[in-house]
Amino acid sequence: MIWFILLGIGIFLLFRFIKQLVNYWVPEQKNRQLKFERLLPVVEGIVWFSWVIWGVQGMFNNKLVYTLIILGIMLVIIVALSWFAIRDFIAGVVLKLEGAFTIGERIKVQALEGRVKELGYFGVKLENFRGEIISIPYHTVSGVTRVQPKSSEAIKNHSFQLDLPKRYTPTESIDKLRELILNTPWASVTKKPYIKLSKENEVCYTFEIIIYSLHPRYFQKTETYLQKWSKKLV
């Protein structure tokens, strides 16, 4: 029994050390660090489960019946404690199979409205018109009315001109402008922005831009956003 307890303490200290090592070893590689942080609890759970099985077998002198009974009780407890995660996971699978919504679509769930940014394992992430990311568990999405934007007939357009320093070529500038516009949460996903080089001088290009959105109040936001980005290139 003493070896069983000491082994448990050793496992606990080992994984605490590994976690600190990961945080210190890969501080600049956020994606890699995130993968380690997600993988480590899974590995630790498997190790702890193996530790419990070994301890139960030793406690009952390797009698299979008693071991299976204890493991069955543990399994019921684990399922009960993780029911919320299981419920969200199942609801997410159902919603994805139904094709309820896809990344880039605008949806409305209860009082929340925004563009779908990510479909995770347990929830969906929306980006509202202020650029805030909102996480919604799948079980709250399932069974409620999702209001999607109407057809492109409801989409408004706005045209303006923008002066851009000659840091990039005209083609590169157009690509960057298009990417900036489409990454705003209020831009239309069905109608792409129209961007054309209208004139240029020694220091800057002048682009003619037409943007599309569901409401005119977003036009000034987009124009101001692009003007601020343009000033950063000077």
Automatic annotation (TrEMBL):
TM region positions: 6-26, 38-58, 64-86
GO molecular function: mechanosensitive monoatomic ion channel activity
Location(s) in or outside the cell: Membrane
GO cellular component: membrane
Xref: Pfam families: MS_channel_2nd
Keywords from the named record: Membrane, Transmembrane, Transmembrane helix
Domain (Mechanosensitive ion channel MscS): residue spans on this chain: 86-141
Name by which UniProt lists this protein: Mechanosensitive ion channel MscS domain-containing protein
Organism lineage: Bacteria, Pseudomonadati, Bacteroidota, Cytophagia, Cytophagales
